[in-house]
Amino acid sequence: MPRGEKSAYTDKQQRKADHIAEGYKERGVSTKEAERRAWATVNKDDGGGKKSGSGRGKSTGHPAAQKGGRKGGAASASRSKADRSAAAKKGWETRRRKGND
Fold first, then answer.
1. What is the pTM of this model?
2. Which of 40, 47, 57, 94 has the greatest count of CB atoms below 10 A from its CB?
3. Which of 1, 3, 8 is closest to 46 using CA atoms?
């Protein structure tokens, strides 16, 4: 199968890639880059195309589709500026001490 051919993907995987690509396009990513990222996400989620006979219908788990980034800001926003600044200074000191710039 030539590179870029999508015949081994299920209809659901193709719909998923289209939906992901639309989200990237809405955020200003070029069409070509949006498609590339969408298929990379589908491959990461499902492990590639699923149209071989055995093993169809297994749950994918959707690991790359979680909304993890949306929760992180809320925790830090509820802290005071002084608390955030102190945490940043503490983290910087730790990285400086361990040499992990």
1. 0.57
2. 40
3. 8
